[in-house]
Here is the input.
Amino acid sequence: MMRKGTQKKPIKKNSAIKKMPDIRKKTHLIIVLGILNVLLAVSYFVLTYYAVKTVQVDGNKHYSADEIKAMVMTGYLGDNSLYLSLKYKNKGIEGVPFVETMDVVVQSNDTIRINVYEKALAGYVQYLGRYMYFDNEGVVVEASKVTTKGIPQVTGLEFDHVVLHEKLPVENSQIFQNILTITKLLNKYDVLCDRIQFDRNYNVMLGYGEVKVNIGALENLDEKLMQLPQILPSLAGKRGTLDLQNYTADRKSITFERGK
Here is the structure.
């Protein structure tokens, strides 16, 4: 029993208990700030250490190196080799006109190589204001408003329509094998032409600016084209027709008729 006149003393709370929530908040804040600092440090390292400084572009003809880089290195992290290695890992870049595929190889932290695999183009024909590019089998693979260096214009083919991704509807499909044979030899001797012209009998005339080269029939084609690396430099700036149609290994008949 409580005695009269006595008062109940208030129980004092432990001051340490009062301070516990403040300590926990400060600890959480320190942890959060520490994590943020680590993330900022890692981000800075990734952005600077993997910044691309050197880009090698191989295999491109239709597009310049700068155009290829603009296609591949897109987005905020487009110049970061680590990001590019993850983005294009086991995956090529497709859907680019004139290009079969492209792949990205990270050679070091600041150097990448872009390999361009362009479509195999044998030539192009003009149709309705467009340049219709076809492959070695005569299938139209691209339509463009611009010409591509190193791809010859082919004239003398007769067709009444052109459909993308379908074969050119010419009367003699052997013509495409002839074009392939010609372009392979022109590449072999490094004398690519601007134009390949066929007449009704499928005789061939090559165009080099203002100079025409009359090949005639495809017999002895290798021997005829073999002469061009030595002859063409001497015809620079001239206009006329170089006649090789009767040239053979035994009969070395070569004439040049100046044009007006």
